[in-house]
Amino acid sequence: MDDRPMNIQWFPGHMAKARRMMAENVKLVDIVCEIIDARIPISSSNPDIPKIIGTKPRLLILNRIDLADPGVTRQWRAYFKKRAIPVLETDAKSGRGVSGFSAAVREIMKEKLQKYAAKGIATKVLRAMVVGIPNVGKSTFINKVAKRKAAAASDRPGVTRGKQWITVDRSLELLDTPGLLWPKLEGPETGVNLAFTGAVKDDVIDIQELAARLMQRLSQDYPELLAERYKLEIPENATGYQLLEMAAGKRGFLISGGQVDTLRMSAILLDEFRGGKIGRISLEKPGDYDA
Ligand code: G4P
Question: So where are the chain's domains?
Answer without folding.
Answer: 13-176, 206-288
